[in-house]
What we know:
Elements: H1 3-8, H2 10-16, H3 22-51
Helix pairs in contact: 2-3
Amino acid sequence: MHKDLEKNDLSSAYRRLKSPSIKTRNRAKKIIQEYKKICRIRFWNRRESENQ
């Protein structure tokens, strides 16, 4: 597994939310937000294609 992917996967991000370091928590929040954004886009795209 690539080193960057290992740091940026979703389960690691949730684990890092517990970190005492503010920087680490903020990075984790950013990763989680990106993931949720992608999921929302996929959901809406799928929904629109079903309605056509």
